[in-house]
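LAB NOTEBOOK - FOLDING QUEUE
OPERATOR: T.R.
BATCH SIZE: 2
PURPOSE: Compare the predicted structure-token outputs for two unrelated chains run back to back under identical settings.
PRIORITY: normal
REVIEWER: second-year student, initials M.K.

ITEM 1
FIELD SEQUENCE / FIELD STRUCTURE:
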Amino acid sequence: MVSENVPRPWTRHSPARRHVEMPTPTAIPASMRPAHVGRLLLALGLLVGAAAGAGLVVGFEPSRLPPALLDIAAYKLTFVAALGLIVAGALFLRRARRAARDDGVGAGGRGGAR
């Protein structure tokens, strides 16, 4: 016989999850939509990376004192910045594609089930 005061596993509730509504695509200005921002960041990252690579190949020196140390540091920072822009752009595009895919699914991308 089971006592009424003993909690049963099937009667426990998980903590309440707060549902956050995302703005609809029409509420976001066209210039700030994730797909647009993602493409812009990808293009900017590729442009910065290409410029850094071209500068390295032609022997461009960003500074004069001491050139070896500061050139290496400047190029490393430039390549890291380019990589960061490329990653940010890819993440924005991924989010945009996921949002576009989930638009027709239902409430919050869960297919209407909670």
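ITEM 2
FIELD SEQUENCE / FIELD STRUCTURE:
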Amino acid sequence: MKQIILWETQDGLQFKNKKEAEAHEASCLGLTLNEYYMLKDLEEQEKQASCDLSYSRNDETLEAYNIAIKQVIYFRELHNLSADGSIL
């Protein structure tokens, strides 16, 4: 038996190589690969801050969540991306 992993981009293209899929996604967004990774990292931080806030709502977790949201918004505005990740 053989297992094949395919990476599918938002526009429906499939790749056998994750790096190629990420490079394609980045180019569709008008980003370099490093910028794409930065966006994904910021989105992951936002997601983690949201989880932390849902488990323990206090001033510290609320502030961390607000900062994470602002960083993602700033990055998207800087690179002319809409909330869904498409180019404005």
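REVIEWER COMMENT (ITEM 2): The mean pLDDT is 92.
FOLLOW-UP: none requested
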